[in-house]
Amino acid sequence: MLHMHHLREMSRNPRSDTAGDAVIGEITSSCLLTRTRRLSRLITNTYVQALRHFGVNAPQFSLLVLIAKFGPASRAEIGRVNYQDRSTLTRNLALLLAEGWVEEVKTDGGRSRPIAISAKGRQLLSSAAPAWRQAQADVLDLIGDDAAANILRVVDAIPLDQFQD
């Protein structure tokens, strides 16, 4: 297991190798991008399998939960809270709107059309909650309580303004 000090040193002091073997070894042994993407795919797939019977995919379900918690909210606010770029947010919102799980809230005289969860969306969350709980338990079995607590701690500590669209 690599210690954080060693990981930081490797990223600050890259070795030169004409064949690139050292760089390949360095990246494959310590790349946080590669590892977090792999972990993300494993976790996402667990939720995808659990939620597919409800006609919603994992990113859309996650977005629905955020809208339920923070809405009504503008698209920009939702994107910022979810660290999501405008095009990805628009694509995921399109299905939620089409299915009637969220709705645009009419405002007095403003151009803004905040998004809020609908009664149908709340029903989806309620119906899918047991499947979500099972997926959550499966992921906890996969990664363990300590890793899950660390993920929550790290992500919750990242300021919302870190993401730039």
Task: Please tell me about this protein's structure.
- The structure is a single chain.
- The protein has about 160 residues and is mainly alpha-helical.
- The protein has 8 helices and 2 strands, in the order ααααααββαα.
- It has helices spanning about 5-10, 20-30, 30-50, 60-70, 75-80, 85-100, 120-145, 145-155; strands spanning about 100-105, 115.
- Strands 1-2 form a two-stranded antiparallel sheet.
- Helix 3 crosses helix 7.
- The longest helix has 25 residues, at about 120-145.
- The chain is globular, with a radius of gyration of 20 Å.
- The relative contact order is 0.11.
- The mean pLDDT is about 85.
Mean pLDDT: 87
Q: Quick one: biggest sheet? A: 2 strands, antiparallel
Content of β-strand = under 5%
Along the chain, the helix and strand elements come as HHHHHHEEHH
How far do the termini sit from each other? 35 Å
Any idea what the shape is?
A: globular
- State the helix count: 8
The count of β-strands is 2
Based on helices, strands and strand pairing, what is the structural class?
Answer: mainly alpha
Short description:
By secondary structure, the chain is mainly alpha-helical. It has helices at 4-12, 21-30, 32-51, 58-70, 75-81, 86-98, 119-143, 145-157; strands spanning 102-104, 115-117.
